Amino acid sequence: MEGVSTNSYIDSMKWKKEDDARYADPDERSKLEQEDFFKLLTEQLNMQDPSKPVENDQMIAQMTSFTMAEGITGLSERFDQFASDMTSNQALQASTMVGRKVLVPTDKANLESGAGVTGMIATPQTAQNVKISIKDSTGATVKTIEIGDMAQGTKEFEWDGKMSNGEEAPAGNYSFSVNAQVAGQTEELPIQMHARVQSVSTGGDRGVVLNLKGLGGIKLSDVTEIS
């Protein structure tokens, strides 16, 4: 066709599905490798206007920009691989926790038949008249545990699984709340409960997740203690 100039080298770089299986992936079509860059640079030098040659600093800037882009891409790929390896390693370590109990920041616990539950409460300063209220799934209070006075810090507690009338509470989930007098005012204190790990999951935005019996999943990073 008249008026249209062609260049054999540029034409040779056009993607042809039947000639190059490397670019079967559409994403690969937009990638310019180092060899291609230097071929283009050489072609640019061959086709430049002799009266206005490319300045050295321009050429160096082009080479530097390509090298930096290639380096950043390589670093990103290595980081992704590192993150994947770390997740796999964490999952392997977390798998050893299956069947064990962990302490997690929740006000709920799963009561197993014939067993009790344990937890931990905390207070930023001395507290008086500390009480733990235990409610079943309907919201009815089944037991109140009197702790009394508590110094600043943390304190473990245990519920033997018996209700106020002395009978065994049915197996299932129960909620716990802690109230106390702190500096003359009634406040609710933070609580953590022990839960049994049933399985471990990986993948997704949450990373490694521990699946707790009756309570669902929780991130591995939220575990504060392993029993």
TrEMBL record:
The keyword Aminoacyl-tRNA synthetase does not apply. Residues 110-181 form the FlgD/Vpr Ig-like domain. The keyword DNA-binding does not apply. GO terms for biological process: bacterial-type flagellum organization. Residues 89-224 form the FlgD Tudor-like domain. Keywords: Bacterial flagellum biogenesis, Cell projection, Cilium, Flagellum. Required for flagellar hook formation. May act as a scaffolding protein. Belongs to the FlgD family. This is Basal-body rod modification protein FlgD. The lineage of its organism: Bacteria, Pseudomonadati, Pseudomonadota, Gammaproteobacteria, Alteromonadales. The gene is flgD.
